[in-house]
Automatic annotation (TrEMBL), chains A, B, C:
Gene source species: Anoxynatronum sibiricum
Keyword Magnesium part of the UniProt annotation: yes
Keyword match Lipid biosynthesis: no
Family named by the database record: Belongs to the Thz kinase family.
Pathway as given in its UniProt record: Cofactor biosynthesis; thiamine diphosphate biosynthesis; 4-methyl-5-(2-phosphoethyl)-thiazole from 5-(2-hydroxyethyl)-4-methylthiazole: step 1/1
Superkingdom of the organism of origin: Bacteria
One GO MF term: hydroxyethylthiazole kinase activity
Catalytic activity field: 5-(2-hydroxyethyl)-4-methylthiazole + ATP = 4-methyl-5-(2-phosphooxyethyl)-thiazole + ADP + H(+)
Its EC number(s): 2.7.1.50
Gene3D superfamilies hit by this protein: 3.40.1190.20
Record-given protein name: Hydroxyethylthiazole kinase
């Protein structure tokens, strides 16, 4: 299996992605969606979220700053997404630090289909009911049992699960991809995880299935990160962030295929 | 007619601009207001919006992420603006995709004076009641009848109307300016339209009339975009956005006059 | 007295800083916290703010866009901070322009301990009850009596008070530090003040006392600003902002000690 064609499909279809996301990195998410070829619609108002999701090719929900208004908007967006059968990508930010967020996500998932959950390892483990180490919204887990945690949650929730870290792990509960690309610089800026989630939603809006869309999305972010970090000033976080958007924009099928370091196996 | 002197007036008067705007690009709007010589006040709290608008030289309202709190704040700000007779610039983001936003804007306009409406062509046509093509918050209209649409809305709403696109059109219902500057790079980042609206508000806070302020504002954005796109890395969206702010800051009366490509005519 | 060791302590302890801050510069605040070695948690939801503050090493409250939700979140965060006895840094944005904000801050301060108030001179004078000149959220005070104003408020509120300006003044009511570093470029971007507040909170989360943490935080911002302004393109606001984050990231104990221009005296 490979992820060839997804970048091209995204750039030719320009999928509209409704994003309900935190205020910290909402601008970065919109810009990264444009850079990967998708079209961002950052609508978080409850009364409009249902209509917007029905126009969209994918929905991205990120609970980093989950206001009461956003809670309602997520409900409405997921209702529209379920009716239109479009993929929903959920980013469970901070559910390791704040246990009540787990209850919220469990309830959400019992009401509406979720195709992809993408978090850091601490968040994925927290949702899977496995003990882990977090510091605020960041995971400080060493990542030894990342595959087991992702498979466990994927089987429990019946969806694609991705955990970001030194290695990124993606699974649909039967097949697993381990992406060994990336750079530590992605941890030096805020929003790398949110941007990854947004790109996954963009790719899932154009991909044939959410597993491929998720692998391609995380690969795109990791490779763009590698290139940004290697450029002039790329070891400095302000410059790195600017170059990261530049590099997402410059990705090609060829450059992705040439640099990808992905290991696939079955559970 | 020309727009000479407006940039200089803005930089010497430092007009305070109250902006109630979407969370996606609020930072860019504040920075572009500073870069063009104005002073940003991004107050969106209902209980303070009336007081802030009365201290301001212009008000910018952008409905991109229109929360209930922002709805109230816009009412309060427009009440203050009407009392102080300061210009109000309205950015009808997304009204092409979400028809209920048209009703909202119609109601707002029936209650308070609006001096300028600035949108993409899809939004302007939607407000004018003309059929158009949109994708989410973006217009995909080919722009053939942009002048007619702007004139129609300007006459209906009795205000200055501007539609951005490959060409920017500005009209007060009798005179028309068509600005043939700009760059496609402005469509590769989020917020170029919002920033244009903010600059228009800044310029209208210092200009003798809103038609001139609007022409000058769109010209400034287009010329800064051209220069940013022509610089090193300017074809990459992350770098382009940084340079766009740099170029707004570096605009001069001379550089604007030398590069302006504006056609004026009467309706 | 000097501020040696605080940067190192911040980078080794990685203090979690809960920030409830305005939507305009929330991304910059998160990135500057990472760049100085702290860990940002930008939680502003009332139902979660108490829990988050109890996990944190410091709390930063900035009232730039004070929504009803943020008001409640600040209450909850300050309650948690008081119980855990962690430092609270308050940024009284706009209280010079909007007098009702003074009442709000007075009430807040009567209910919960505040360790540091950091504002521009107009804001500090407004809180101290001294006449001043403001334009929107910016101070246009000439700064002659900055020390007196800070000492007055520090003695009235029994906390550390810092006023930013051409010179930055910090006092705990008995000792005073006047920092003569910095650059005018910090006034050409939005959020320099907010970022300074965030860095102060990060440093106070690792410093032995809030006076030292505040002096070190303002010094770090001023020195990073100087270096950013001196670099290529550093006189342009878009580029300057990118380099400012880069330079915060590159600060060292040695570079801070070598460039610091601080005058200390007793009241």
């Amino acid at each position: 299996m490979n992820v060839k064609g997804i970048l091209t499909a995204t750039r030719s279809k320009t999928p509209l992605v409704q994003a309900i996301t935190n205020y910290v990195t909402i601008n970065d998410c919109a810009n990264v969606l444009l850079a990967c070829g998708a079209s961002p619609a950052m609508c978080e108002v409850a009364r409009e979220a249902y209509d917007f999701s029905r126009l969209s090719a994918a929905v991205y929900c990120n609970i980093g700053t989950l206001t009461p208004e956003q809670r309602q908007a997520i409900q409405e967006a997921l209702r529209g997404a379920a009716e239109k059968e479009i993929p929903v990508v959920l980013d469970p930010v901070g559910c390791g630090a704040i246990p009540s967020r787990i209850d919220y996500l469990e309830e959400l998932r019992s009401q509406y289909p979720i195709q992809v959950v993408k978090g850091n390892l601490g968040e994925i483990k927290s949702l899977a009911g496995i003990e882990t180490q977090v510091r605020g919204v960041d995971s400080v887990d060493n990542g030894e049992d990342a595959v087991e945690a992702c498979v466990s949650l994927a089987q429990k929730w019946q969806c694609v699960v991705a955990a970001t870290g030194i290695q990124d792990v993606v699974t649909d509960g039967t097949q697993v991809a381990v992406i060994q690309n990336g750079t530590q610089m992605l941890t030096k800026i805020t929003g790398a995880g949110c941007m990854a989630g947004a790109v996954i939603a963009g790719f899932c809006g154009a991909a044939e299935n959410p597993f491929k869309g998720t692998v391609a999305g995380l690969l795109a972010m990791s490779l763009a990160g590698e290139k940004a970090a290697a450029g002039e000033g790329g070891q400095l976080p302000g410059t790195f962030k600017v170059k990261l958007i530049d590099e997402i924009h410059q990705l090609t099928e060829e450059s992705m295929a040439a640099s990808a370091n992905i290991r696939y196996f079955s559970v």
